[in-house]
Amino acid sequence: MRRIDLNKANMTFPSGKNLTAESEPEIKPDQLQQLPGLLALARSVYETDTLQKWGRKLYRACLKRHYKHRYECSPRFHIETNNDGKQTVAWDGKIIQRMLPLNVLRQSGKGPAYIIASGPSLNEIDLNLLRRKVTISVNGSIAQFRKYGFSPSYSVIVDRDFFRNRLENVVEVLRSSTTCFFSSVGLSTLIERVPQEIVNADIRLLERIYQHYLLPSPTGEERMEWMLGQDWIFSDQSGGSRIGWSEDIEQGVFGGGTVVYAALQLASYMGFNPVYLVGVDMNTCGKQLRAYEEKDGKRPSGLDRDYEHLILPNFKLLRKYCIKSGLVVFNVSRTSRLPEDVLPRKSFEESLAS
Q1: Rounded Cα–Cα distance for residues 153 and 134 (Å)
Q2: pLDDT values of the chain reduced to their tens digit, one per residue, 354 residues
Q3: Judging by DSSP bridges, how do beta strands 87-91 and 18-20 pair with one another?
Q4: Dmax of the chain from CA atoms?
Q5: Helix (H, G, I), strand (E, B) or coil at 245
Q6: Letter string b/e over residues 167-201, b meaning 16 or more CB atoms within 10 A of that residue's CB
Q7: Could you give the CA distance from residue 70 to residue 68 in angstroms, rounded to a whole number?
Q8: Spatial separation of the C-alpha atoms in residues 328 and 249, rounded to whole Å
Q9: What DSSP element (H or E) covers 352?
């Protein structure tokens, strides 16, 4: 399997230009004050609370085209990957967190795993029955685990909006002693707002395809050509660059329009089989969109916007991948928008008996 060295990664774009992580010089936070020019100015401006918005804008303006995916990270934030794959997270040049590489998790699990989403039907499930099972919570479903008095085995949160607007749920995950999988934007947000919470947490970096903090990102048509050259990506080549499945999460996962899709790639990479999906309702027509939400705390959802062109095509591709690879995925949600011919159904009770 072809692998990418995150420190010396090479992406050849259709233009013929090779970009590596070294071709765009990395400016570390502790070096900014020593440098002349806009980057140093961005840092100094950003340190003034009243001018943070303008400092962030200036930082964005300094990023070159293929690093625009760092827009939402603070200029004071930095990730470094060592030769052994271990990563360090720094703020103002001070190491805040050390993270183990994802490759230690490859095929580390066996047997079934349950991915717990937060659709309203989750309220109809007795999570106590999963207390001795491998569970992967996504986003706010951690609130349901709290009701039953135990923690999930793993937790995946990669949505930018969730880190910004559901910070209390993220902190709850950090305090649960579970292994957390966060995006670089999420880590930057946590260090900026609740740095004390991540010091002793078990955190791994889970990034999306094309959005590695350390790597340049192909844009437009460049993405499809690059994607087709990677043997760890499963794609039918007809759905575009946002439709795919990653067999190697070290290199990134496809977002799929829902964090559940990222969690599925993680579960497969770790070797869990079969994988059961719980609370994957994906319906927006009811009174309640998420199991944990109160009436006054609702957040908007992109389900209707993304379902037809992003979510459904990725799950159709997953069905093809399951046939090819032997991965077994069942939807055991009480109700779900995903059709059964795309994602086979079982009852929750049947999953426990198998």
Answers
A1: 6
A2: 334 444 444 444 333 344 344 333 344 444 434 444 555 555 554 555 555 666 667 766 777 777 878 888 888 999 998 888 889 999 999 999 999 999 999 999 999 999 999 988 898 999 999 999 999 999 989 999 999 999 999 999 998 889 998 899 999 999 998 999 999 999 999 999 999 999 889 999 999 988 888 888 877 677 888 787 888 999 876 667 889 999 999 989 999 999 999 999 999 999 999 999 999 998 756 555 655 555 555 655 556 688 888 999 999 999 999 999 999 999 999 889 999 999 999 999 999 997
A3: unpaired
A4: 65
A5: strand
A6: eebbbbbbebebbbbbbbbbbbbbbeeeeebbeeb
A7: 5
A8: 18
A9: helix 348-353
Residue 271 CB neighbour total at 10 angstroms: 14
* DSSP class per residue in 76-127: TEEEEE-TTS-EEEEETTEEEEEE--GGGGTT---S-EEEE---GGGGGS-G
Whether 27 contacts 39, CB under 8 Å: yes
- Tell me the three state secondary structure of residue 175: coil
Tokens encoding 112: 């079934």
The C-alpha R_g of the chain, in whole angstroms, comes to 20
Please name which of 306, 272, 99 lies closest in space to residue 182, comparing C-alpha atoms. 99
Question: What DSSP string describes 256-306?
Answer: TTSHHHHHHHHHHHHT--SEEEES-----SSS-SSTT--GGG-----HHHH
Note whether 157 and 118 are within 8 A (CB). Answer: no
Question: How far apart are the C-alpha atoms of 76 and 188, rounded to whole Å?
Answer: 9
Neighbours of 123 (CB within 10 A): 14
Distance from C-alpha of 70 to C-alpha of 88, rounded to nearest angstrom: 17
Q: Strand pairing partners for 329?
A: 275
DSSP states of 6-74:
TTS-EEE-TTS-EEETTTS----GGGGGGS-SHHHHHHHHHTSGGGHHHHHHHHHHHS-GGGGGGTTS-
- Give Cβ neighbours of residue 328 (< 8 Å, ≥ 6 apart): 273, 274, 275, 322
DSSP string, 227-243: HHT-TTEE--SSS-TT-
CA distances, 173 to each of 35, 59, 71, 112, 295 (Å): 38, 30, 25, 22, 22
Give the predicted TM-score (pTM) of the model. Answer: 0.83
